[in-house]
Fold each of these.
Amino acid sequence: MIMGNQAIALGALKAGVNLVAGYPGTPSSEIIEFISKYKEKTGTYVEWSVNEKAAVEVAAGASYAGSRTLVTMKQVGLNVASDPVMCLSYVGVKGGMVIVSADDPGPISSQTEQDTRNFAQFSKIPCFDPSTPAEAYQMVQEAFELSEKYNTPVILRPTTRVDHAYESMDFPELEPCRTRGTFEKDSQRWVIFPRASYLNHKRIFDRNQNILPQEFSNSKWNTIETLERVFEKNSVVSDSERRGSLPLVGTSLPPTPSSGGTPQRPDSSKGSFALAAGGISYCYLMEALSILQTEHPDNESYKNAQVLKIGTPYPFPEPLACDFMRANPEITVFEELDPVIEQNLVFLSGKYGIPCKIHGKLNGIVPEAGELTVEIIKEIIKKAFANGVVSTGSTTADATSATVNADAATAETSSSTAGTNSAPDLPVRPPVLCAGCPHRGAFYAVKQAMKGKKTAYCGDIGCYTLGNAKPLDMTDTCLCMGADITMAQGFYHNEPDRYCFSFIGDSTFFASGITGVVNAVYNQSKQVICILDNSTTAMTGHQPHPGTGVTMMGEIVEKISIPKILEAIGVKPIIEVDPFDQQKAVEAVKTASESDSVSAIIFKSPCISVAAKLGYKFPGARSVDVQKCIGCQKCIKELGCPALNMSLTKNAKGKQIVEIDKSLCTGCGLCAGVCPVKAIG
Ligand code: SF4
Ligand code: SF4
């Protein structure tokens, strides 16, 4: 079984990728980590770059020289990389460059539900949208070919459920990467002069408006499917062909036509209803139809429903879509995030005067936000196509009457699921800082030192975002990576009497914090920058960064010093302190907050998950003295450490006491310092 991100990695290695760079971000992080395992065998250079922008720029250099490059990131990382990405679209590449930007419907672990398909259109870069790991494996290879054919970067846009799904595939034979290219000087090509951009814009427009829509209409990734057809194909495809080429979600999902062959053309002879989908939504849709057909064997509508599958959302396969619309005057579109397919169909209807009603997110048939599921789609189809009867030419109920309230559908789905599935709902488990996390000590020290003062606490993206949770409640804002330092400047310039703090991790400091520090010093801000240095990129899986002294090539290199960077920029004072030494930490906060300029506190203590590797020895779990504990719960209410729980045991005065979960406690001692009666030893 191969995970979607591993499939993407294998596809890139199979394509002979020479250089891979990226910045960690769920759901994309495993791609580089998997490639790194094979770097000796293939000779591929791999790096975690400081941020996505740097990653794209590193890759561009190699690609200009003719080498194949892969850049990985999550969708919001594409914003960081947008500057070089937009320019590369115009300048172009020589060696194939594939940018994997993983989208996160839900969102499950992201700030937004940004849709990379729209970014592809915005940046004029062709985009592939896999619906399964096996498709992703094939698409990434095809993306390299397309990139070199048209000298353009190409985007591969998987979503979380494709990145993290597992599928049975044959593990490919890996060979050394392609021979690296040599850079040939050609300023007319590689320097982005305005005149060159003007000419390239015309060329790109022609490619995206005239060439690729036609080419993509004949691609195996864009097809017209019915359940009947895919069942037929499934029955004639051997096991070995099915592996690595056919998507399966659950046991009843039929395959896509990704095994190749001529794309299907619209067939209106069956008189059934028409649907469209892309990415993982296609798999959900086909499974929903399959279930409906099983539940209603006499109703041919589900079996004969025409499904337009879109695997290349940009440029849109216009001729194929137009044929589909001419054959089906009503189409319902299922897709997550933005209504990209839906809007393209609406646009084509107007552009070519094709009378076709398009249903989807824009008229409320499909939920406008969050993930889709098989159950949600099934309920929508059942409701919108009462009894499964919608003829292609008939005047069915208009969009309003056919509209299904998406929320209601979702709610009903839950209740119907509850009826058939006796498993209880899982308890909600909000994310929390680990027991023994040094960030807890840092936040608590600032909170103690600034009690009663007018403050603003600007947070950032990483584990320390969890400092917002009660009882710490130490994050007032969180926008995007690196924004903590710059937002604190905004607060200061607006209210100079406010104590402005920013909280940023060591990896994020390198990713996008340094520029904020430069801006703060240059523009005469007054703020305290708290760098929570736990010696790793913790939240995404402990990737190394420039401050750790290790590269993804396994080299031990000189650590880049955060204090020296701060000093060079002009920050003062710069105080390094152990967040578990609360007395010194509180003093440090008070000192730094009285500075008239930009000051910094580096709270230095390793993440508990990497501490052992770094030679750090934990003191051992603490315990509560039953005789001393007065049951005041101050330890729980001030720190929120998950190792602290209310016990069933009562003290001599009949008061319920606190107990410490020894399997979680690292012995950090914070709670011992908080306890008013020294009951924790
Ligand atoms: S351990 Fe100390 S702080 Fe916690 S409940 Fe007991 S007395 Fe209160
Ligand atoms: S010593 Fe206290 S605060 Fe630290 S991990 Fe153990 S229970 Fe949590």
Note: The chain has four domains: 2-212, 223-415, 438-604, 618-681.
Amino acid sequence: MKRYDVLIFLINKYQLRSYLEIGVRESTTFSRINLEDKIGINPGGSTLSKVLSITSDQFFLQNDRKFDLIFVDGDHRSAQALRDLKNSLISINDNGFVVVHDTMPHNLEYTQPNWCGTVFRAVQEINQDPSISLHTVNTDHGVSILSLEPSPPGPLYKDFFDFMDNLSLCLNIVTPENLAHIKFYGK
Ligand SMILES: C[S@@+](CC[C@H](N)C(=O)[O-])C[C@H]1O[C@@H](n2cnc3c(N)ncnc32)[C@H](O)[C@@H]1O
């Protein structure tokens, strides 16, 4: 299962209609999202239609609409990822989702910014909020799903190795096979 399979599963099951992707690159994911109402963000120029050549911060500064689904996959450094997650969570509809990629670095090497970076740290911080629920599909370097549902704060880990030792608990891991059994929004 790839990151876009998780997104497509949510779109189909919850009949989502609008999509924002932060960090599009070659459109591997964006081109697979079959929704009329979609916008991509990718700084540094893009010839793709519906993709804006601005940073996520610039986008959210002027954004005044909400989306059913936002995929966060831009700058993988924790401070920027955290800002993207916070901005995204206030930009989804009540029954919407924020999905974030690269939350399960396999080892310390993978925490370099051009790989998974430190997105996992941003997710830990978001997971302290009792009004946000977190599930992570154990696939494609970690695909985490955030929804606006009450949930006890997640554990605080000391460092990367502590995080790795308690991965399942820290990220609330589900297998790809079990994704279909999660009851988001009671459905
Ligand atoms: C990992 S790639 C995205 C891959 C794509 N989402 C996919 O599924 O194939 C990360 C992208 O984020 C873009 N990016 C970096 N900083 C960004 C920022 N501040 N705002 C939006 N996008 C950013 C990079 O230019 C790069 O194209």
Note: Helices lie at 3-14, 56-62, 78-89, 119-126, 160-165, 167-171.
